[in-house]
Design a protein that fits this description.
Residues 19-134 form the Glycosyltransferase 2-like domain. It holds the Pfam family Glycos_transf_2. This is Glycosyl transferase family A. This protein is α/β, with parallel strands linked by helices and 347 residues long. It has helices at residues 31-39, 58-64, 83-93, 112-116, 157-162, 184-189, 202-212, 240-254, 261-290, 292-301, 303-324, and strands at residues 18-24, 44-52, 72-77, 98-101, 107-108, 124-133, 152-155, 181-183, 217-229, 339-340. The chain is built from eleven helices and ten strands. Strands 1, 2, 3, 4, 5, 6, 7, 8, 9 and 10 form a ten-stranded mixed sheet that branches. Helix 1 (31-39) links the parallel strand 1 (18-24) and strand 2. It is globular, with a radius of gyration of 21 Å.
């Protein structure tokens, strides 16, 4: 599964050195694959791993993955500070012209950066993603990942935000999952860093703010990033407060004066969407902790919360019925095939 070193010298006359940043917590089982996939790419100048308060030997495993090239640096926090803080710290420690984020249980596919860096006219550049069930990993052959047409396109703010809003019976292809290469010069010029208030949606927030500042966000159809889908992922265990913080981040962007027209409307819709999810979760928390009466008073005290609460409760009941009827179960012995963020681009 580990990528092979790209052949051939890099001849571009612009600074295309890449720093790969991996923020990790309790990732000892996966961190070696992530690091190796980065070190085996000739464009990668630095790999900075930040062990964010792990208790399972993540830092030791990361250090043992060193290939002796002098490009790997492992930083350990004794106390967990969150992915945004860890990434910002790594950016401050790096010197490469390009910043690339890699999650600790994911990996790069061979040749990723030669595809992404083939052109220069962008501030952020991302590619297609293969979502792979964790049960495939031990036997995965990267050559089995589907090939995609080579076209590139540029992402605008309304499209990006709208594709991060879930809608009933429609796969949204959430663009917040994108892991672009980002030009340090653009980040520094606009003082852009990850919001350290966020432990959910920190990628979405950074990309939205960059696009609001007229970032040229290139996307190519080629698949260069492997995202491992796990039942126990951190993104599936977010706190109720995390939903509120993400809605508040949208509100700050709306109040920045940078938005107008369709962009403003899209961010407003996303803010309402996240605020509604927060109200629903807050209702459920109160119901669990203090009973239905207290939860009901919360809804009455927040009239704007009533519709999302009712909608969320109905969706929960429908999901429960679907699960009990077995409609979403995968047959025994079968594993879901990899899915792709942009499946329609396949050759």
């Amino acid at each position: 599964m580990v990528a092979q070193l790209e052949a051939g010298a890099i001849t571009d006359n612009w600074d295309n050195s890449v720093c790969v940043i991996i923020a990790a917590k309790n990732a000892a089982d996966t961190i070696a694959t992530a690091i190796s996939s980065a070190l085996n790419d000739a464009y990668v100048k630095e790999v900075i791993v930040v062990d964010d308060g792990s208790t399972d030997g993540t830092a030791k495993t990361a250090e043992e993955t060193d290939d002796g090239s002098g490009r790997l640096r492992v930083i350990r926090f004794e106390v967990n500070k969150g992915p945004s803080f860890a990434r910002n710290h790594a950016i401050s420690c790096s010197s490469a012209a390009l910043i690339s984020i890699l999650d600790a249980d994911d990996f790069f596919l061979p040749g990723r950066f030669s595809e992404l860096l083939a052109t220069q006219d962008w501030d952020l550049a991302a590619d297609n993603i293969a979502f792979i069930d964790q049960r495939w990993i031990s036997s995965l052959d990267t050559l089995s990942i589907r090939r995609f047409s080579p076209e590139r396109w540029f992402l605008d703010l309304p499209t990006f935000v709208e594709r991060n809003i879930s809608r009933p019976n429609k796969q949204r292809g959430e663009l917040g999952f994108l892991k672009p290469v980002m030009r340090r010069e653009f980040l520094d010029r606009h003082d852009l860093r990850y919001s350290e208030k966020l432990r959910l949606g920190e990628d979405y927030d950074l990309y939205a703010r960059a696009l609001a500042l007229d970032a040229r966000f290139q996307v190519i159809n080629n698949c260069g990033y492997g995202a491992v889908v796990r039942a126990d992922s951190l993104s599936g265990r977010h706190r109720t407060e995390d939903l509120k913080q993400l809605a508040d981040a949208d509100r700050l962007l709306l109040e920045s004066g940078l938005l107008a027209g369709r962009s403003k409307q899209a961010v407003l819709e996303h803010e309402r969407h996240m605020r509604g999810k927060y109200h629903h979760r807050q209702f459920l928390d109160l119901k669990s902790q203090k009973g239905l009466v207290s939860a009901g008073f919360y809804g009455l005290a927040n009239p704007s919360a009533i519709v999302p609460i009712i909608g969320g409760v109905l969706r929960d009941k429908l999901d429960g019925f679907t699960r009990s009827s077995g409609k979403n179960e995968v047959p025994t012995g079968d594993l879901p095939a990899p899915r792709y963020l942009f499946p329609d681009a396949a050759r």
